[in-house]
Amino acid sequence: MKKILFVLRKQPHNGTYIPETLDIIMTAAAFDQKVSLLFLDQAIFQLKKNQHPEAMGLKDISAIYNALPLYDINDVYVETESLQDHGLTLDDLNVNVEEISRANLGDFFKQFDLVLPG
Q: What is the DSSP letter of 110?
């Protein structure tokens, strides 16, 4: 079993990019790979509570993130500085995550067999 980290950087609600990326992530997990997610930059807004994209005719992806444990995707990380830069705290997010500081990312990446942009 490979340990795969998907690094997400894109903002939510930008067309089909995020739902398609989530399909890839869940497919990898379905094939018995150990999948983890890291949210950087504006991607942290993908996890923000109380969004209503359907008002703009967009798909609400929050239900997909809530289903991650069903795919054994339990290791979800956010970069501390990305939260701070965007004025968010862990309480603003709709899933349980672990914070990791920018200074520790290099060592963090070393624990994975594969690091993929998402």
A: T
| 3-class SS letters over 10-73 | CCCCCCCHHHHHHHHHHHHHHCCCEEEEEECHHHHHHHECCCCHHHHCCCCCHHHHHCHHHHCC
- What is the separation of C-alpha 67 from the centre of its chain, rounded to a whole number of angstroms? 12
Look up residue 80 and give its two tokens.
């501390």
Residue ranges of domains in the chain, CATH in brackets:
3-117 (3.40.1260.10)
Indicate whether this model's pTM tops 0.85: yes
Q: What is the pLDDT of residues 10-55, one digit of tens each?
A: 988 777 788 888 889 999 999 989 999 999 999 999 899 877 666 6
Q: Contact at 8 Å (CB) between 59 and 10? A: no
User: How far is it between the farthest Cα atoms of the chain?
Assistant: 41
